[in-house]
Structures are given as C-alpha cells and as structure tokens.
Write a structure and sequence with these properties.
The complex is a heterodimer of chains A (402) and B (342). Chain A is of the alpha/beta class. Helices cover 45% and strands 8% of the residues of chain A. Chain A has helices at residues 17-20, 25-33, 67-92, 106-113, 129-134, 139-147, 156-159, 170-184, 208-219, 250-254, 266-281, 311-318, 322-333, 338-360, 380-401, and strands at residues 121-123, 196-201, 224-230, 233-234, 237-238, 258-262, 287-292. In chain A, the strands form two sheets. Chain A has a five-stranded parallel sheet with strand order 1-2-3-7-6, sandwiched between helices. A two-stranded antiparallel ribbon of chain A has the order 4-5. In chain A, helix 9 (208-219) links the parallel strand 2 and strand 3 (224-230). The longest helix of chain A is centred in the N-terminal third of the chain and has 26 residues, at 67-92. Chain A starts with 16 loop residues before the first helix and ends with a helix. By secondary structure, chain B is α/β, with parallel strands linked by helices. Helices cover 37% and strands 19% of the residues of chain B. Chain B contains 13 helices and 14 strands. Chain B has a seven-stranded mixed sheet with strand order 3-2-4-5-7-6-12, sandwiched between helices. The relative contact order of chain B is 0.12. Classes of the chains: A alpha/beta (402), B alpha/beta (342). At the A-B interface, helix 8, helix 9 and helix 15 of A face helix 4, helix 5 and helix 6 of B.
C-alpha cells in the first residue's frame, strides 16, 4: 500500500528542493488515500479487528479506562448513532428541514469530547452532535436547529459548548480568541488550567480563517486544540482537493505539533485529545489533531454521495466501524456480555423514541420571536417594526372572530 | 496600571482641554481602558507605532502588550479572535487601518459579530467595537478613501455610528465600548488632526445618548443632514449660504444604525426642504434610506423632493480627481438652490 513516505519532504540543505517538493499528483493522492490505514504515523490503540495496541506515549493517557469506562464510551457511541439515524429518518419524513449526519464519526467526537474538563470550552462546526452529547447538551436542545424552530438553544456557558457555526472555518478564529482570553486571564500553567478545542473538517482547512486561526494561536501561544475531523469529503470534494500534504503535517509550518489519530478509534481519540489538552492547560499549546475518519453518510440530507464516490470506498470503511471494534474488544476480552449489548441497544432505542416524540410535539415559535434579541439594547427602529407587524397580525385575529 | 499612568489619566480627565478629534479619541480610549480592565485594543500597528493615524498612541506603553495587541496582519483574524475574546468576557476594540481593508473581515462581521446574539436568543453577547477610519480627501492611493458604511448599516445586529467633532469623539468611543451590542465606529480620518476643529472636551460633562442625531445649527430655509466628515462640509455650506440670505439647518446624524430620524422629520416639517449629504455612492445607500423615510413621514410638509449630494456610483477615483468626486460646499449650495427653485 502506498504511503506518504513514498516521497520525501523537502528539508533545508537536503538536496534539490524543487524536485523533492513536487511529488506527482498520483503520489499525492496515494499519500493521502493510503492512508487506507491512515499512513505510518497514524496513532491507533484499538485496531478495526478489536485488538488493543500498546503505545509507549499514549497508554498512560487512557490508563484509567477499564472495562467499565470502555463500556461507557461504547454506550455513548451507540446512543449518538441511534439518535443520528433517527434524526436522519425524521428528515426523510419531513419532520426536520435538514439533518447533518455524523455516522462514522462517533469515535472522533466521543473520544475528544470525553477528554474535556468542565472548565474547557468547545467550539463546534455543525456536525458535532456527539461532542454536544458529551458536554451535556441534550439532542432535544440542538434539534431545533434542524427542525428550523431555532438557531441555537443551549446555554453555552453552562455546557462549555459554543453555538454551532455554519460558515466554514469562522469558529476556528472565534475559538482561538477565546483561548487567548483564557491565557490572558492566567488560566493556563498547570493541571488545573483551561483549554479550548475547536472542531472543523478537512474542507475547512482551505479557508483563510483556519490559516489565520493557526497563525494567531501560534503567535499568542493560545491553549487551543485544533481538532480536524478529516472525513475524506467536503461535500463532493475529496481531501486531495484541499491539500498536497497530509493535513496534520501543516502544523509544522505554523510551529506547533500536529498529529494524526485514527478517528475511528475512540480510545486513541481520547488519549490523543487528553494529551493535546494537557499540553494546552500547561501553556504548551496550540496542537493540531487530524482525526482520520470517514463520513459514512451524506454531507447533509440534501446531497447524494453516490454521485461522487464509489460504493467500494464505503464498504471498505464499514470494516473500520468505530463501534464494532469496541464491541469486538469488549466481547473478546470479557469486558461485556450479550446482556450489556442488548441493554445498550434498548437504551438507544428508548433514547431515539423519546427524541422522536419530542420532535413531533415541537411547537413553532411565536411570530414575535423574529424580532427578539437582534440587539442586546433596544433598537427604536426594530421596536416600531415589531409593533407594526404584530398589530397587523392582530388584525387577522380580529377579522376571524367576526 | 501603574500609579503614574493613573495620575496622567486623572490629570487629563480633570482638565477641560482643546483637543483634535484624534486626541479626543485617544483620551476616550484611555479613559475606557482605565475604567474597565476587560477593555483591550487590538489591530495592526496599534502598539508601538500607535496606529497608522496615532490614535492609539501611548496606550501600549501605559497598559501593556496584553491590553494593546499588535496583531498579525489579517483583518478576519483581528475580528474573528475579538469575537472569541468578547464571548470570553473581554470588550475588544479593533482598529482597521483603512476602511478599504475591512472586507477580509466582512465575513466575520456579518456572519458572527452581527448574529451571535440573535442566534443564541441573547445568550451570547458580543460587546465589540470596530474602529474604521473612513472617507476621502487625504490624497491617498486606492482602498484608502472609501465610505462603505451603508454596507454595515444594512446588516441587522450591528450598530453603526460616526463622529464629526472632538467632543463626540471623546464620548462616543467610550459609549460604544460600554455598549453590549457590537458597534462599527466610523471615524472621519481627514479631520483627525485638524487644528481648526480643536474643541473643548470636558470630561466631567454628561454626554447625550450615543444613538441619537443632533441639530448642530438651526435654520429656516432648508435642512441639510450629514454625518462624519460631511458634517463639516454641511456647516461650511451653511455659513456660505448666509451670505445669500439662506438659513440652513444642519443635522449631524451621528447614528447610522439605528437611524434616528426624528430630529430630521421635525426639521423638514419646519423647513419643507431636505438635502441629504454623504461621500458614499448614492445608490442603495443611507441617503436613499433617509430620502425614502422623509418622504413617507413628511410628504405633506415637503416643498420639493428630497435631494441628495453624494459620491458618484463609481469606485473611488484616483486622488487627483477626488476634489471632483467628493461633495463640497458648492454642490450642497447648488442642491439647496435646486430645492428652492422647485
């Protein structure tokens, strides 16, 4: 299997840089795609077959993850997948305006989310339903976005989970600024320090805001973990449309560490995220993590992946399912029995049923909501518009009474 | 802050001073930073250099590098990180060097700064000020003389103001910083250092509201409404008109979003005539909005259509042509004459 090592990276004084710096397009694609296994630098603790790999660097970050804790991570992933599938189905039934599936990315989200402490802040993009779950944001709190009754309903301070950001890459700068604030307030320096994590995709790495976020974070030593979920596709554009280099290697150009982790390995995602967050808490940030994963469904319910990718690719990634490998590991090692798996499935079904029932009973917001909270302080212009429009609506109510 | 800095600020605050607009902004920023240690100034060159116009002169020396940030060179980065800082509880004041460079930050301003409060049903506040030196008349190369304020006034969630004199500069910058809403603060760059516009700033006075327009000169023949650098043009035109026996009322808009047109309506009801003045291109602009709303509110009081004196609907021209592009007092007087001849 080809790998990124097939072509060399240009080093100062290492020979004809022009030659070294120009791999053929085939090499570039091979380097990224081979990645079949994520390439030689992929950090992995649990193989797709459910075999535990040891790591001299990262084992200590998951030393506390015994069978019970691993069962908890398994349960997390099964529940968010079940809620994700239910939401996808509800969109198909016309109950949701759109859904953004996370299928296949459960390990990246649960692993990194469970690495966070209460004082940390997470800045999501718009697919981070699993991270939201780990931060205590109920699916019912975020479903309004997709039911189109709300833009963002949860209390971001209470949960340490910023509102979703739809515009690609904007949140990377916002998170970096937030992390700068943590540093300015002296909240870094020891184990009790605070950190920020920001989520974005492989497509976002082409955005200027992500580049600027990297620059600012480096210049101000901001305690921010850049968590890139490389799910291989930015809607229909593959990763090789975004980069010649594996994405984690970009960090080097900004002067901070970059690491590629198996994004379908919840244990590795937890360990690497804990390491990166610890670096930030101690004032050694920022860090870039590339979670090498795969979006097993559409970008959103509006696109059709069969138009732009082959079914073989999906079938191949199904073999690397993030949930199945934990199940295999637990079952093989006696960490869980069939009764546990059955109970988790039952819990997930109940979780989804409760969500469905909630969605079906959601009321539309009142028309006055249009005008609420545009500004923190009153705006006379808007107040007049609100009054006029509500009075106009009242006219219909009066007419109907006759 | 060190004791010596505090005594300097106190000394400055206790004296009624004749200040230029630039110095008044500097003192206003200094006072706001002293009052609240969450106020931070950030932008390109705002530290050691004191900003390209020296508006932040001396602030880094007195408040330190963590409260006056010399940032990397990228406007989206300045504004995008300021959003995060504001969410964290800081009150950032961003400086954009020239209005023509704000567009790389436009996405952050429109997508995040303006909408976070609304999207979160008020749970996230963005108490952010973006200072924008704007307007022409300084003989600069392109991208240094534009008037893009209408673009921002069009965006719900932003408040947009512009000062035209030193007293307002001193108070309005502090009020903008104290506002829990994001404020775009447009500064008349060609008037920054005008000695003729030095004015007495009394730090012990009680300022009027930030989001309110103000009648600067009363008159009976016609009303001229303007903002920012155009206010001086309007006042000069009013002085010149006196020689022709015309009495012009001049209103400084001050707040571009929300528009406070009450004083304009009152004035037009008395004078019957309105000239709306701005350097910006006229099409789909603030002057368009003013004309529309005055027509709606004062239809039976108008003796003539609302006339506009604006920049042309072209990109800002090479500076050797700006004297023709920028509305001057003669174009204002011509508009007044046309209104009177109706």
């Amino acid at each position: 299997m080809p790998s990124p090592e097939q072509w060399t990276h240009p080093e100062p004084g290492a020979g004809p840089a022009a030659e070294a710096a120009q791999p053929t397009p085939e090499q570039v694609i091979a380097g990224l795609r081979a990645t079949n296994e994520g390439g030689p630098e992929l950090t992995q603790l649990l193989t797709p077959e459910g075999e535990r790999l040891s790591s001299s660097v990262f084992d200590r970050y998951v030393a506390d993850i015994d069978s019970e804790a691993l069962r908890g991570l398994y349960r997390d992933m099964v529940l968010v997948r079940r809620a994700d599938r239910e939401s996808n189905a509800m969109q198909r039934q016309g109950q949701l305006g759109i859904w953004v599936p996370l299928l296949g990315q459960e390990a990246a989200q649960i692993g990194s989310g469970r690495a966070l402490k209460s004082g940390d802040m997470a800045f999501p993009s718009y697919r981070e339903h699993g991270v939201a779950y780990t931060r205590g944001v109920d699916f019912k709190e975020l479903i309004g976005i997709f039911r189109c009754t709300d833009h963002s309903g949860w209390d971001f301070k209470k949960h340490g989970f910023h509102p979703y950001t739809i515009v690609i890459g904007n949140q990377v700068l916002n998170a970096t600024g937030y992390a700068m604030g943590q540093k300015f307030e002296g909240k870094v320096g020891d184990d009790d320090g605070e950190a920020t994590i920001v989520y974005f995709g492989d497509g976002a790495t082409s955005q200027g805001d992500v580049h600027e976020g990297f620059v600012w974070a480096a210049v101000y030593d901001a305690p921010v973990v850049f968590f890139c979920q490389n799910n291989q596709w930015a809607i229909s554009e593959p990763t090789e449309r975004q980069s010649r280099l594996p994405l984690y290697q970009r960090a080097r150009g900004y002067g901070f560490p970059g690491i590629r982790v198996d994004g379908n390995d919840v244990l590795a995602c937890l360990a690497v995220s804990r390491w990166a967050l610890e670096e930030c808490r101690h004032g050694n940030g920022p860090v870039l993590i590339e979670a090498f994963t795969y979006r097993m469904d559409a970008h959103t319910t509006t696109d059709d992946p069969t138009r732009y990718r082959l079914s073989d690719e999906l079938e191949e990634w199904k073999l690397k399912d993030p949930i199945e490998r934990v199940r295999a590991y637990l079952a093989r090692g006696g960490g869980a029995d069939q009764a546990f798996f059955d109970q988790v499935q039952a819990d997930a079904d109940a979780f989804a049923a409760e969500l469905r029932e909630y969605v079906f009973s959601m009321a539309d917001p009142p028309p006055s909501r249009i005008f609420d909270n545009v500004y923190a302080d009153p705006s006379p212009v808007l107040d007049a518009q609100r009054e006029e429009f509500l009075s106009y609506l009242d006219g219909f109510a009066t007419a109907g009474e006759h | 802050m060190t004791a010596s800095v505090k005594s300097t600020v106190d000394a400055a605050k206790n004296d009624i001073q004749k200040l230029t607009i630039g110095k008044a902004l500097n003192l206003g920023l200094r006072t706001a930073m002293e009052a609240d240690d969450k106020v931070i100034v950030m932008g390109e060159d705002v530290g050691k250099l004191g900003g390209v116009f020296r508006i932040t002169d001396g602030l880094q020396k007195d408040f330190g590098e963590q409260r006056v940030l010399d940032t990397p060179l990228a406007e989206s980065g300045i504004i995008g990180t300021a959003v995060g800082l504001a969410v964290r509880g800081f009150r950032p004041v961003c400086e954009i060097q020239f209005e023509g460079f704000i567009f790389p930050g436009f996405d952050q301003i429109v997508s995040q700064v303006a909408k976070l409060h609304y999207r979160t049903q008020g749970k996230v506040k963005v108490p952010l000020v973006i200072r924008v030196p704007f307007g022409g008349g300084i003989g600069a190369v392109e991208h240094h003389s534009e008037s893009p304020e209408s673009l921002f006034a069009h965006v719900p969630g932003l408040k947009v103001v512009s000062c035209s004199n030193a007293v307002d500069a001193y108070w309005m910058i502090q009020q903008a910083i104290a506002s829990d809403d994001p404020v775009l603060f447009f500064e008349p760059k060609r008037l920054y250092h005008s000695g003729a516009l030095r004015a007495e700033v009394d730090p012990t006075a009680t300022p009027g509201p930030l989001f309110a327009s103000r009648v600067l000169r009363t008159g009976t023949t016609a009303t001229v409404v303007a903002y920012g650098p155009s206010v001086k043009v309007a006042l000069d035109a009013a002085t010149a008109a006196e020689e022709d026996g015309h009495s012009l009322e001049v209103i400084d808009l001050r707040t571009l979003s929300p528009l406070d047109l009450g004083p304009v309506f009152d004035s037009v009801r008395r004078t019957g005539r309105l000239v709306a003045l701005s350097e910006a291109p006229g099409e789909s602009s603030l002057t368009s909005e003013i004309a529309t709303r005055v027509q709606q509110e004062c239809f039976y009081s108008l003796e003539a259509p609302v006339l506009r004196v604006t920049g042309f609907d072209t990109p800002y021209p090479p500076a050797k042509l700006e004297e023709h592009y920028l509305p001057d007092l003669d174009r204002v007087l011509d508009a007044v004459d046309r209104s009177l001849a109706w």
